[in-house]
Amino acid sequence: MKTSFAKRLLSTSANLVKTPLHELHIEYGGKMVPYAGFEMPVLYKGQSHIDSHNWVRNKAGVFDVSHMLQHNFRGKEASDLLQKITPIDLSGLEVNSSSLTVLLNEQGGVIDDCIITRHGPEQFYMVTNAGCREKDVAFIKRELEAFDAQHETFEGTLLALQGPEAAQVLQKFTPENLKKLTFGHTLFSKFSSIVGSDVHIARSGYTGEDGFELSIPSSTPQQTEEARQFFKALIEDFPDTVKPIGLAARDSLRLEAGMCLYGHELSESKTPIEASLTWLIPKTRRDNASFNGASTILAQIKDKSLFSSRRVGLTSKGPSPREGSKVFSSSGEEVGYITSGSPSPTLGGNIAQGYVDKSVKLGSSVDIEIRGKRRPATLTKMPFVPSRFYRGE
């Protein structure tokens, strides 16, 4: 697991960026690696990858995701801009609610996946991936020229507190009743006496567990120190409940949850339809659609013969499938390839995602070529582990 994951931790820059919490990662024994131009913790001293993974499934883990890029959009045509570059339907997105969507190029390929939150009639917050920041910003600036809207990116401390005990821990810091905050919704809150600025709390995450993503202002030395103190308080005040968790477990957790990783399951050469994300194009946006790549995407929805493969899940035993492993049908024909693969700490055995010819149905037996030998596998529905998002009591 360590070797295969390390292959993905590549940086194009010799000068790695550090998040506001970098010194604390070192203090807590983080093993630092290059990732998307940042120096990030992959594991922490005293925790194996499996230990970290299982801790999040059973208690609560806190991830530093400050490497991700945060955006604000505002202005009288902000919604028009966003509905041009993504297939989202903002007419149905209430204030303080969020939705997953994708940035699309003119051919319908995925530039990046992102979360968009409405904060007002023409005020939106978006989070995109660290590894795509340069191309995302360049793309948005080009598209922005045709709209009366403003766009700004900003840095800050972004934390993901994930796991079945995340809510009871976070409740100690906020006067807001978190039982009223359901999956896909957000709020701003003061955080006890530690953080002086309002914290943006989103009930969401990338693990399949209940949890929160917290955007903490860190534009001044005082704000940065407050963010650090909050991170320390989560870990040191709740030692039996919260542990810092690194990139290795984040990857296996999202894979068990059937979630995509940009650059693996998603790319500019794949449309959302090929990526089995047709649900991201709501029916309300399929008539007179004006988003990028609409003609290609809508044609694929209507006529599945226009594309040959789609994203699927696979399970197997023995050596784990890895990115690039070839997939073969029961008759020996090459029918696809693996985009992500890992042993599953929760289920045992291996899980993977990949692109496989549409003619191969779910439940079919296939072979995956691993280290020069073909190993049996089965096409499987995702998520592999049922999600436990909080939707109210």
Automatic annotation (TrEMBL):
Pfam families: GCV_T (PF01571), GCV_T_C (PF08669). Its main location: mitochondrion. It catalyses: N(6)-[(R)-S(8)-aminomethyldihydrolipoyl]-L-lysyl-[protein] + (6S)-5,6,7,8-tetrahydrofolate = N(6)-[(R)-dihydrolipoyl]-L-lysyl-[protein] + (6R)-5,10-methylene-5,6,7,8-tetrahydrofolate + NH4(+). It is an enzyme of class 2 (transferase). Residues 21-283 form the GCVT N-terminal domain. One of its GO terms (cellular component) is mitochondrion. Its EC number is 2.1.2.10. It is found in: Mitochondrion. GO terms for biological process: glycine catabolic process. Residues 310-385 form the Aminomethyltransferase C-terminal domain. Keywords: Aminotransferase, Mitochondrion, Transferase, Transit peptide. It comes from the Eukaryota. Signal peptide: none annotated. Belongs to the GcvT family. The glycine cleavage system catalyzes the degradation of glycine. This is Aminomethyltransferase. The gene is Piso0_004537.
